[in-house]
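Recall that a protein's primary structure is simply its ordered list of amino acids. Everything else, from secondary elements to tertiary packing, is in principle encoded there. The following example makes that idea concrete.
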Amino acid sequence: MQNIKITQIEPIITKHRSNLEFIIFNFLTKFKLKKICDRSKVQKSEGHRVIEILFIALTLPFMLVSSVNAIFRSEFKWVAEKFEKCCIYRFLNNSCYDWRKLIYKVCFKFVKLFPTDGA
């Protein structure tokens, strides 16, 4: 499997901008993120669901934005309509979550779903 840079993905994203949310959501559903979050003990007691906020965080590179704040200035108005910036920042800055474990599990799932030719 060759390394793909974000600059290689950019033309595809630009071309399919209207269907981007669907494409990303469809791709991320293969990872079963809710199950990974539950096993990693990443939970919230109130407000938006963990999976919704995590979805926003994981799609930042695909939206071609550099930060959460940049989403709210971009054409992805559906995020601004549903979430507040502080909600996403609070979630990402929560030190109670074992982010290393969560990212490790997502990476492990990625390797399992998309093995290299040599494996």
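Helices lie at 6-15, 20-29, 33-39, 50-59, 68-72, 77-82, 85-92, 99-113. The chain has a mean pLDDT of 76.
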